[in-house]
Amino acid sequence: MTAAVLLRPTMLSDLDFVISVERDSRNLPFITPWERPQHEGAVRFPDFRHFIVEAGAGYAAIGFVILQGCRNPHGSVELKRIVLQAKGQGLGRACVRLLKRIAFRDLHAHRFWLDVKQLNTRALALYASEGFIEEGRLRESVRVTIDGADGYDTLVVMSMLDREYHARVALDLEGPPPAAPEPEAAPR
User: Fold this and answer.
1) What is the DSSP letter of 97?
2) Coil, strand or helix: which one is 163?
3) CB 53 within 8 A of CB 65
4) Domains in the chain, start-ordered, CATH in brackets?
5) What is the pLDDT of residue 182?
6) Helix, strand or coil, per DSSP, at residue 133
7) What are the counts of helices (DSSP H) followed by strands (DSSP E) for the chain?
8) How many CB atoms are located within 10 Å of the residue 54 CB?
């Protein structure tokens, strides 16, 4: 069973949290962090969708995601960033499934794509298991510094087409729609 996650639009007041998650030492090797003004632009600019990921008891904030190309005339939407605090709990899979639903159902994407650092083997395995197809590699295209060692990593470009997504839905590979949180009881 896939963990339940919710996405809510990021507010400017959430950006301290976003920056802290992005700069967490467990996440830094796998992303190229943005400066605050870049996140502010993504919150404000209509071509982006910047979301806070919520899960667990009370649906607390556990990370963030960014979609780019939401107004792309070619229907090509990019999963620009997914950064979560907790690892190994199925939250990444739940996010990816929810983001696919948003891309194909809500944004009417023809193509949903991403790039991921080759050293991020967990993410590569997740995206492949969720139906993303490798399109190619951008060899040694990003500079990385890990534990003081400086070098380069390769970006793996992966995508899913709308017909591939709909085939997965027909085969029940996308799981049930995410459960809504229970409404809180009104105070008496």
Assistant:
1) H
2) helix
3) yes
4) 5-170 (3.40.630.30)
5) 42
6) strand
7) 5, 7
8) 17
